[in-house]
Prior knowledge:
By secondary structure, the chain is α+β, with helices and mostly antiparallel strands. The protein has three domains: 4-25 and 445-587, Aldehyde Oxidoreductase, domain 4 (2-Layer Sandwich); 33-129 and 197-248 and 253-285, Aldehyde oxidase/xanthine dehydrogenase, a/b hammerhead (Aldehyde Oxidoreductase, domain 3), CATH 3.90.1170; 292-356 and 409-439 and 594-745, Aldehyde oxidase/xanthine dehydrogenase, molybdopterin binding domain (Aldehyde Oxidoreductase, domain 4, 2-Layer Sandwich), CATH 3.30.365. It contains 20 helices and 26 strands. A hairpin with a 6-residue loop joins strand 24 (594-604) and strand 25. The longest helix has 28 residues, at 512-539. The model is unreliable at 80-85 (pLDDT under 50).
Amino acid sequence: MIDPSKFKVIGKSPAREDAFDKVRGRAVFGFDVQIANAIYGVVLRSPHTHARIVSIDSSEAEKMPGVYAVVTSKDFPELRPGGFGDIARENLADGKVLFHSQGVAAVAAKTEDLARQAAAKIKIEYEALPHVMTIDEAIADDAPILHEGISFDGSEGRSNIHEKIESKIGDIEAGFAQADVVRERTYTTPVVHQGYIEPTACAAIYSEDSQSTVWSTTQGHHALRDMIALNCGLTSHELKVIPTEIGGGFGGKTAVYLEAIALMLSKKSGRPVKMRMTREEVLRCGGPAAATKIRVKIGIKKDGSITAMQGHMLYDSGCFPSAPTGGAVRSIFTAYDCPNVYIEGYSVVTNKVRVRAYRGPGAPQACYAAESLLNELCDEIGMDPIEVRLKNAIRDNAKNVAGIQFRELGLVACLEAARDSDHYQSELKPGQGRAISAGFWFNAGGYSSATINMHKNGFVSLTTGSADLSGTRTALAQIAAETLNVPIEHVHAEVGDTDDVGNTGVTGGSRTVNATGQAVHQASLNIIDQLKERAASGWNVLPTDVEWDSGKVINTKNPDETLTLRDITRAALQTGGAITADSSVNIAGGLGPSFGVHICDVEVDEETGKTLVTRYTVIQDAGVAVHPQFVEGQYQGGAVQGIGWALNEEYIYDENGVLQNPGFLDYRMPVASDLPMIETIVVQVPNSMHPFGVRGVGEVPIIPPLGAVGSAIANAIKMPVADLPASPVRVLGLIQARDGSASAAA
């Protein structure tokens, strides 16, 4: 049984590895990379939303002094349908434009301004095509078809639905028949962006006779290397990707955007190429989260027992198949041990930018629908929403509808902590609304690698392949320090490039401290084995006769004989060479699933519809909080993003499919003055599948806010909130509809 109180380093909050460099402006982000003789690339983007490319004439641009190269899709060898070919097509359209501002050509020149001037001289003839911008338009019988030959049912029929996922247990109709109350409602959510501060940026040097190099602000440089190599007709060993510091990603920087273009421009020009997106390009082309339309039906008895739960979910992929529908299916009802469940998830293509991951991809939208309707039912049967959830909560060793077998779970502990919290026990003021919402994320495993090198003075250099978005270098250093029993100050952690460390999956899905943490732990154990072997050799005993305890080795045959870590490392070169260890793991399936419960209080101005969040509390199971301050920061950051999603954030398109708010002035994210202090309660139910009981914490915090905020507004205005964002205009419309209905009834 893991006891967090016994840890010496884990559970503390040391300073971040990267803190001083970032505060002092020394950290190197994507566009900070300095390369001699670099030129600059820009992308020419389509003014059409859906159009056939008839011809491209770049001759006038190529003649301009200071212009070094022009590329189009024809310069990329791997543009086959499906797989990585879609990635290349997304960045530079091949034959057909599928969304407004899709790249069509790219230019490299001496300066960015000159490159933009040259791009404007490229002549492109288009044949405009009808477009579909919403899920309903895309699935209509007479809808224009974006891709020939895709179908969700394996047939050769023409469809904009490219995927169906089904999951069920029990008898759904029998379950509804057993219920005292059955309610059904449809919920919608818009396209939203991750809102990372640093725009996408990269640099590239192509080499004909050695290894090409790309620098990128990416969440996964090993996967990025493979995708760039495939796009550019290289093998992986011909390319090295060096990760820079990353100014936010949240799932949005897990794809190729500019990197393959930059490398191909470098190849054609013979010069290093730097590229970056403007903020407008980031919002138009940077892989936002999916819009959804979700119909939920729930049956419940008057005693609070849930008898049946049904979900019909439509997820908007954008222009290529990519919607996170699988995450939605695995998450929507997983918090509840319901005997009868039926879930259908469909993914639909539209003429919008291809969607990408956003913290807990697919789950916030799905749980918004499920939690909102459950809150409505709790109100109808007159039961406390936490008590209803406690009555139906999934518990240890259960299996969910998707077939995931759980071990120890923290949902009940989170619900009890929420129920007993000062926030939930406090009184509301007149006109305010309060609601709770639960959320689940399965947390990814996957492959990770770590390397440890010991220095003569006993200090530790730790290199992993996981990009650091949230302080994970420090958390991984804590795992190494805890295992080796050394002070955290003696461990230096860094992120290695694709040649420095073994293959490692993307930083996402709450997998880094889960999976990479296990690689670090195994490498640390390997170091301890080597230390014991060196000591055993000197004492002329077997390694099994040596113990590692409190940072030193002890000869069990003569306990008076001990050696410190520094004693052994100081003599390492004379006793067998440098002490170093590598470890690679592949954690099958999910690892350490996590639950969270959020409490939200709001105040609604009934004259304007404006909503003010007055109090907000996040309760979540961290397993074991490796770095409590980082954990609380993840809780608060995810909650803020979810609140923004619920209240204001949305992509607004005109009738031509052109995004109307491609900037932070018009794309309204929350700022500090919009929010109360986000309160946190860290629940710790250790995960037995991790050596230190860790669960990922990055995904869950964004999942409950949509339901919590929406239901709190519904409770305040006495009207269901079924469409997000709950902007002032939309909330005012609900208030007016309520008052109009009341007047008509009178």
